[in-house]
Fold each of these.
Amino acid sequence: MIWLNLVRSLLYTDCIKPSADNRETFQQYFSTMKHYTQIPDTSDNEYWEIKANDGQLRSQTFIPRDKELHRQLKLKAWAAIQAA
């Protein structure tokens, strides 16, 4: 649902009018997306964005592409840890 709201907001903020072609393209795109139930390993390039730190040749920071999804998964993980 988060992605659907994001797409809707992008469509209207960029002044792209939804058409049958656009809807079909978005449906195909979202049907191939992964549905995350936990925070994945940093090797998952669909979830993580890599930021190279200047001045440090071998330093990388992994930033989640969808911050709201990441926040929800963190809350879920902490709830499971505290319940154990």
Amino acid sequence: MSSDQFITHFQNEVFPMMESSVAILIILSDSLDSKICLEVGAAILLNKPIIVVAKAHSLVPQALEKVAYKLIVGDVLTDEVKAQVHQALDDLVENYS
């Protein structure tokens, strides 16, 4: 996908989904890429609560920690982390209702 196609896809597909979402879930990998950077930036500019899931021992940028509604550390595939994500979403809905 070319950079122009990527931007068009983001504007036409991803951004509208983010606008209509209550919160944004960001799953950090070991490296940053343009997709995650655009998503985090858009979430901040849209004033959306950000739930971040990061692997244990991974480096979470300090600025991202500051803007995150909730930071969950662990393997996203485990039941424990899934439960934490669900709890964070429940808390978010309760606090914003």
Amino acid sequence: MSRRLKLILGVGALAIVMAALSAILRPETPRQQFFELRPDLSDARRAADACAAALEVEQADFDEYVERVEDLRTRIAEFEALDERGVPARDYPRYLFAVDTFNAILPGWEAAADTLRTHRQACEELVRVHNALADSARALAEQAELLDRQGPPPDRP
């Protein structure tokens, strides 16, 4: 490594250490902390909202899938109820098609349900993170006396 590159890396590392030390040694006021937290709170809200919107679409898709499976299950049962001896020969090709379709899409049910459950848990975690940030922001706003009875805290310092 060249001497110049070592010098640049050293100065960069020193700058990072100095910035970190100044943040530690210079305690921020609750007011400063509040205004530094607001962008994170907004980002967390947008992430939770986007996740909820995507989950709603995914839930609708899953509900359609479930409806299709249930329709096939009902159709198969109807074919099987036509005659106590079994499905009549004239209806057998349609019955077989319904059974084959049902068997083809059924394995996806568990995977789709697991995916939906996982995504729901991820959204719930995003909401928990947002709520924790909101609680912190409210506490900081109260400490900084930024809250009044007329409305929310100001947008800028």
Amino acid sequence: MTTILQKLEITTQVTFPRLRELRGKYQITYDAMAKAMGANKQQTAIKRMRDGDFTIDEMVALRDFFNAMGETETITSLFFDWLFTNVK
């Protein structure tokens, strides 16, 4: 049986923390992020909340977007590393 605490832990996991960190660091709006990946704001929100999947083209676009600002991100660091850590 799943406890309420277990349910909360599942729903409170931070999705894509590196994307969120960089968005905050550079004060990037969701609109600007959506434009960088060739999507609209609603599509981007769905993907950030894990109700949809980023395409490889969107991943590459966001990696290039942040790297053009001086970061040295990889697709793995932006989209997959958090799946293997306990970031909350």
